[in-house]
Amino acid sequence: MSGQLMEGRKCMRVMVADDSLLFREGLARLLTERGFDVIGLACDAAWLTSLVRRDPPDVVVVDIRMPPTHTAEGIEVARELRAGHPELGVLVLSQYVETHYAAELFDEMGAASGGGGRGYLLKDRVSRLDDLVAGVRRVGEGGLVVDPALVDALMRRRRTRDPVKELTDRERQVLALMAEGRTNTAIAKTMNVTVKTVEAHVRNIFDRLDLALTEDDNRRVLAVLAFLRR
Questions:
Q1: pTM score, whole prediction
Q2: Structural domain spans, the chain
Q3: Which CATH architecture has domain 158-228?
Q4: Are 222 and 103 in contact (CB under 8 A)?
């Protein structure tokens, strides 16, 4: 299966940082079995920083809460690493839905960094290996990955008037699937509708969020960011 996944694709280089030995080693083994080149493991932010400085990978997979304070070391080290390596992809794993950290990951870090991808997944997602593998690869290719549980939490937090609130239920569903990094074809299969229907929903989302077509901007990414920034 890993051969089918990686056939014709670059062997993506990954580092994993988590203070739990079992989780760290287990995740590294799963990624290796799926064809990724896991070139470094770290138990804390300082160790990860040292590894990245010596040999920058394509993606770092990092826990939000690590020693010594177990608060936001993962986000902080990700910000510092991205400042020195703008093309570095960062996939943050968390035990819980923490919207304020997610907003920092997608907003502040995105504005200050280059082409590296960003992602936020719950650790429970690791049990769904295909989702995890797709997420790591998408981040490594410069894309965005947002856990569906985070999308739901952000939607529930809406209190003031904003364009996202004006979306229909179907449009919000499409936007949520876009936030997961799904293509129009994949969204159509998930929603059991035609690709043309999805394309119409996507156009409506762009219109409601006032995202004009330009040569320089990716409107799918901008739509997700407009949603996350609130």
A1: 0.65
A2: 2-147, 158-228
A3: Orthogonal Bundle (1.10)
A4: no
